[in-house]
Amino acid sequence: MNIIRSKENKAVKSAKKLLQKKYRKDTYLIEGFHLFEEASRSGAEILETFVTEEFAAKFPEAIIVTQEVLNFITDSKTPQGLVAVVKMNNDLDYEKINLNKILVLDGVQDPGNVGTLIRTADAGGFDAVFLSRDCADVYSPKVMRSMQGSNYHLPVYSVDLSELYKKLKELKISVLASTLSDESISYKEVEQKSGIALVLGNEGQGISQLTKNEADVLVHIDMPGQAESLNVAIAGGILIFNFI
């Protein structure tokens, strides 16, 4: 059995680079057996798989590496015994995506929030998630772990929001943006359950001016307590499950 023990191995070094956003152009990393199974089940193209010796029999086509080398190509503190390189799906075709009920993230920058919101949209039966270019990178290891494979259950794309809003208006899909603006209404007053795009904004700044200008309805969550705002992932959960 050929076991790679050097961090200087070409395949290992190439995989290591994918921990940095600037190298994630066409491929990204996943870690662990759950994400590997989700990716495989979805039909995602898995280009390379790295496993430690104890899992070699289960993955006969994989590259066998030491635990030290596996630790080198993941940022997890307690990595499982598998890391894989997966090909990105960058082919966005709005005509092939059901846009009846979608989530839009406008500048959400915390990886945990991004991953949780995508997972919540999946749980709530939403059709797709679109992220503005300044959101946390959906292919970062932290977002991947937080999504728990939900990106393999529904389309997730990083887009130019102005182009997205133009498409939504063509399809007569209502854009509902969450904000604490004086112009907003309680989400409970919105009766529409389909044909919507729910937009959630940045953790500190809220929605962008573009979103405010393009939104059909501005909504807020009534808060009888004294907190000034909710975490965006919590707010998203409330709103997503209101529109299922």
TrEMBL record:
<dbReference type="GO" id="GO:0003723">
    <property type="term" value="F:RNA binding"/>
</dbReference>
<protein>
    <submittedName>
        <fullName>23S rRNA methyltransferase</fullName>
    </submittedName>
</protein>
<dbReference type="InterPro" id="IPR029064">
    <property type="entry name" value="Ribosomal_eL30-like_sf"/>
</dbReference>
<dbReference type="InterPro" id="IPR001537">
    <property type="entry name" value="SpoU_MeTrfase"/>
</dbReference>
<feature type="domain" description="RNA 2-O ribose methyltransferase substrate binding">
    <location>
        <begin position="29"/>
        <end position="92"/>
    </location>
</feature>
<keyword id="KW-0808">Transferase</keyword>
<dbReference type="InterPro" id="IPR029028">
    <property type="entry name" value="Alpha/beta_knot_MTases"/>
</dbReference>
<dbReference type="InterPro" id="IPR051259">
    <property type="entry name" value="rRNA_Methyltransferase"/>
</dbReference>
<dbReference type="Pfam" id="PF22435">
    <property type="entry name" value="MRM3-like_sub_bind"/>
</dbReference>
<dbReference type="GO" id="GO:0006396">
    <property type="term" value="P:RNA processing"/>
</dbReference>
<dbReference type="InterPro" id="IPR053888">
    <property type="entry name" value="MRM3-like_sub_bind"/>
</dbReference>
<dbReference type="GO" id="GO:0032259">
    <property type="term" value="P:methylation"/>
</dbReference>
<dbReference type="GO" id="GO:0005737">
    <property type="term" value="C:cytoplasm"/>
</dbReference>
<comment type="similarity">
    <text>Belongs to the class IV-like SAM-binding methyltransferase superfamily. RNA methyltransferase TrmH family.</text>
</comment>
<dbReference type="InterPro" id="IPR013123">
    <property type="entry name" value="SpoU_subst-bd"/>
</dbReference>
<keyword id="KW-0489">Methyltransferase</keyword>
<dbReference type="InterPro" id="IPR029026">
    <property type="entry name" value="tRNA_m1G_MTases_N"/>
</dbReference>
<dbReference type="Pfam" id="PF00588">
    <property type="entry name" value="SpoU_methylase"/>
</dbReference>
<dbReference type="GO" id="GO:0008173">
    <property type="term" value="F:RNA methyltransferase activity"/>
</dbReference>
